[in-house]
Specification:
four-stranded antiparallel sheet, alpha+beta, 445 residues
Length: 445
């Protein structure tokens, strides 16, 4: 558990540093793009690479008997450093006391942050419910007598809260620009994103990078909305004057867990607004590389898990095939067996039993085909039913996951030694190939 947590933390840290370097390369591009990358860095703390790895293992890859294991081994080995690096933990002198103490400290702070988060969320929701529609404004605007700044409240059905005492202090153009800023937050679903990062902060409060990411999210979020306001044609001077009027009126009324007009570094924001320089377009090359990198971050551990699982299943299939090849086989002819019942396979450590099977069903199970695809003349393929008991000298690995393909060699050997039959696949006789039969004898193909 501790090892898995440490792996997750260093992977998330490395991922965050990579995101930081990417955002530095995107300084001249739109703030909305950088905000999305910082949000990825935040959400990475909630989604460990090990979860993607296990999802890939659960999905798996189909691996036939003939698959070359070296290819899968090399691929998994190449991906292993980012998934599970070598790390040695120094043993604690008194782990029985240290670990509970650390967990208690983490839980206490996390609980406090969670309670503050819920309290502020409830306060913002209470104010929005008590607010009244703004006269002459769109339905998403509400006027409140509370001492707040213009802000967006609620995740579902969000509304813009406007303090009544501020309305008379802004000109119409300033008010329109401030409202455009808040509506940009609604369009970008910034309240939801802010709450997601608040969850990350509550769970990983001890990690400095989490708080740095939170600061960057706020700065890029506000700048993205400023860019949206200017892109809609609002006058930069009027917009900057409106922000300063809001700041003078309610600098002490900032509400947490709402996205508000005076959040972020106001000096930097005002400078960018007055400069009024549109961001540089991302361009095809940057967009393609960033999209490919983002997909690779999730795809590599998923694919590594799938390939590792395929390698494991291939090795399991090889081991069980070898074990069943050495098995002592006992065939029991059933008298009056149920002709309508399908054959069933039961496996324990040292015994594999195939019950109520015909020879046609036996071959179909071992080769993964339908019984009608097994060709052969005569009634001997279907007329009789058998119980087949294989006693394995070396225990079968993971008998609950025994793949029917592991029966191939045993079936070929059984057909050859007990029934004097040859089994052909793609016109090649399978090992063991069987005895030389007289002309006109029946063969299974």
């Amino acid at each position: 558990m501790i090892r898995a947590l440490i792996d997750h933390l260093w992977q998330s840290t490395l991922f965050g540093v990579a995101i930081w370097s990417i955002t530095l390369a995107l300084r001249s591009n739109a703030a909305a793009v950088r905000h999305w990358f910082w949000l990825l860095a935040s959400l990475k703390f909630l989604v460990p690479f090990s979860a993607l790895y296990l999802a890939g293992a659960a999905a798996g890859l189909f691996t036939p008997v003939e698959t070359e294991t070296g290819l899968f081994g090399a691929a998994v080995q190449a991906a292993a450093p980012m998934i599970s690096p070598s790390l040695t933990l120094a043993p604690s002198k008194d782990p029985s006391l240290l670990l509970p103490a650390l967990f208690a400290a983490w839980a206490l702070v996390a609980l406090g942050l969670g309670m503050r988060w819920l309290r502020n969320w409830y306060a913002a929701d209470r104010i929005s419910r008590a607010a009244r529609p703004a006269p002459g404004a769109l339905p998403d605007a509400r006027v409140t007598d509370a001492d707040v700044e213009p802000a967006v409240a609620r995740v579902l059905n969000p509304v813009v809260l406007l303090p009544s005492a501020l309305l008379g202090r802004l000109s119409q153009s300033q008010l329109d620009a401030v409202m455009a800023h808040e509506r940009a937050h609604i369009a970008r679903h910034d309240n939801l994103k802010a709450h997601l990062h608040s969850l990350v902060e509550a769970l990983f409060w001890f990690h400095p990078l989490v708080w740095f990411i939170g600061r960057q999210l706020m700065e890029e979020r506000e700048r993205a909305c400023d860019e949206a306001v200017l892109d809609r044609g609002h006058d930069p001077g009027e917009y900057a004057a409106g922000i300063l009027a809001v700041c003078r009126h309610c600098a002490t009324a900032h509400q947490r867990h709402t996205v508000a007009a005076i959040a972020g570094d106001l000096t930097t924001r005002i400078r960018h607004i007055l400069a009024s320089q549109p961001p540089v377009a991302l361009g095809f090359t940057k967009a393609f590389l960033l999209s490919a990198w983002t997909l690779a971050v999730g795809a590599i551990p998923f694919a590594a898990g799938a390939m590792d699982d395929a390698l494991h299943r291939h090795q399991l299939l090889t081991d069980n095939t070898r074990a069943l090849w050495e098995a002592d086989i006992d065939v029991q002819l059933l008298h009056g067996g149920d002709g309508g019942e399908e054959a069933r396979i039961y496996a324990t450590g040292n015994e594999v039993t195939i019950r109520n099977t015909t020879l046609r069903q036996l071959v179909a199970i071992a080769y993964g085909v339908h019984p009608w695809q097994v060709e052969g003349s005569g009634d001997w393929l279907d007329a009789s039913r058998y119980d087949i008991h294989a006693h394995v000298p070396v225990a079968v690995s993971e008998p609950e996951n025994l793949h029917p393909y592991a029966l191939r060699g045993m079936v070929n050997k059984l057909l050859s030694s007990r029934f004097d039959l040859e089994l052909y696949l793609n016109k090649e006789c399978q090992t063991a190939c069987g005895q030389v039969l007289p002309v006109g004898s029946d063969r299974a193909r």
